[in-house]
Amino acid sequence: MLAVEPLSISPWTVFLYALFTAIATGLGALPFLFTRRILAHHLGLANAAAAGLMLAASFGLIYEGVHSGLGRTLLGVFLGLLFIQVSHRYLEGREVSFGALSGLDARKALMMVGIMTLHSFAEGAGVGVAVLLTALSLTNGFVSGLVQATLKAYPHLVLFSLSEELPPFPTREHPEVEAYAPFAATKALLTRPAEGARGPGVDFATLVGLGEGGEALYPDLGLRLEPGGIYLGSALQQSLGAFVGDRLYAMSATQERVELRVLGAFRTGNYLLDSAYAFVDLKTVERLSGIRAQGYQVRLKDPWRAKEIGVALAGTRFFPQAWQDTQRTLLEQLSLQKRVLGILIFLIVAVAALGVANLLVFKVVEKTPEIALLRAMGASRLTVGLVFALEGVFLGAGGVLLGNLLGYLLSLYLSLRPLDLPGELYFLTHLPVEMRLSDFLLVSGASLVATFLSALLPLFRALRVQPGVVLR
Q1: How many CA atoms lie within 13 A of 237 on its CB side?
Q2: Cβ distance 168 to 315 under 8 Å?
Q3: Cys staple from 355: which of 6, 105, 120, 169, with CB 3.0 to 4.6 Å?
């Protein structure tokens, strides 16, 4: 059976296609800038093309939905048909007028405007805002989860000694310091001899030797260090095929060899740490590589203040290194990923805003006689334009509120049932969610601005109505 390789699509490709979609959506309103009348022949062609595209899109969505869940797809189709049937029966027995239209034509036009309104209100702005908020919450959760998982087995702050002899820790009573311990780290080749039916195991690892107080640096790991003992990362333990009580041999670059006994294993959720780190006592590292204590590892109450506290503690005897410095590349990549993701998904909201513009332009054309009459009766251009601007704001505000609700519910669901991730690819074994009020406010504000700007096009169209020409 042939293996199908997954498509590799860059963010810029997604950006360009989404941009073209947004531009194409906005083209629907452009003809009304240059003409007040469209020939019935041209209108028929445009309606036929639009109907064909919508049918193709509908069947495409049904095809995708069947793969996700046949029952839910059929339920959605049923609810849509039910809405159309109920609306049709409601309008069928009533005398409906829609601008210059009446009877069957008015009912068709009213149905068309209603569907366009729902599309712009719910599927456009609402779904766009919901998807954007969910994506940002997942990105926040991924970043926070990765940082928390990393700091389970990584020091908040390291003070490297600038002298051969390790000076005493600078300030014993600093309010932000929770724990500290002398340390030394080295690379080593770990081997496990074959025993019975089990074959041998071999892997490279970073051995972190901790002195007195080292267990308090990593309370989540449950370390109980003792001479000649070793704690392995969970993935490293699996790679070596080692169990508690097994004998391991560590060999350094200087060809020194030390026998160790497996005391236990730890799991942070960060695959890079779980597969490459192990903890031993400080004397084991000294015997293995000849390295004496290199400085102090420090645990802080607030890890994000590591740089500031490092400068305060270092003085002239230590060189401070905060965890943000060693993980700088990763943090910058995650920050860039969040910005790019936000821009790409915000284009959905931009497309919805253009849909609102199309709807309002349609209503301006339909209401042209009423606009002219209001102008002839003394209404100012600002008053007439404000009516359509307020309608655009109303549609945008409704969509944003709906999007906030959907985004919150979807993020809450994903936080209760997190997605599993392959740790060797994404460093985390599951995808956490972190909702932030600032993201909700920023997305809501940007969406409202986009919707308001989209309302300017029909507003200008309404301001250009000349009462004398229309009422003549």
Answers
A1: 20
A2: no
A3: 120
d(CA 399, CA 387): 19
Distance CA 36, CA 264 (A): 79
- CA max distance for the chain: 103
What's the CA dihedral at 456, 461, 462, 468 to 10 degrees? 160
Number of other CB atoms surrounding residue 390 within 10 Å:
11
CB 454 within 8 A of CB 354: yes
CA gap 153, 310 in Å, rounded: 19
Strands (E), 303-457: 318-322, 419-420, 430-431
Angstrom distance (rounded) from CA 302 to CA 157: 11
Helices (H), 69-163: 70-92, 104-118, 127-151
Specify the pTM.
Answer: 0.58
**What does the alpha-carbon distance between residue 432 and residue 417 come to, in Å, rounded to a whole number?**
9
Beta strands in 396-462 (DSSP E): 419-420, 430-431
Q: What is the pLDDT of residue 232?
A: 93
Residues 183, 283 contacting (CB under 8 angstroms): no
Site of tokens 């169990």 = 243
Q: Kindly state the DSSP code that residue 305 receives in the 8-state scheme.
A: G
Report residue 125 CA to chain centroid gap.
18
- Measure the CA–CA gap between 219 and 233, rounded to whole angstroms: 15
**435 Cβ contact partners less than 8 Å away, ≥ 6 residues apart:** 133, 137, 140, 408, 411, 412, 415
Per residue in 231-284, pLDDT (tens digit) is: 999 889 999 999 998 999 999 888 889 999 999 999 887 788 888 899 999 999
| C-alpha to C-alpha distance for 279 and 97, rounded to whole angstroms | 80
- Determine which helix (DSSP H) or strand (DSSP E) holds 299, and give its type and residue range: strand 295-300
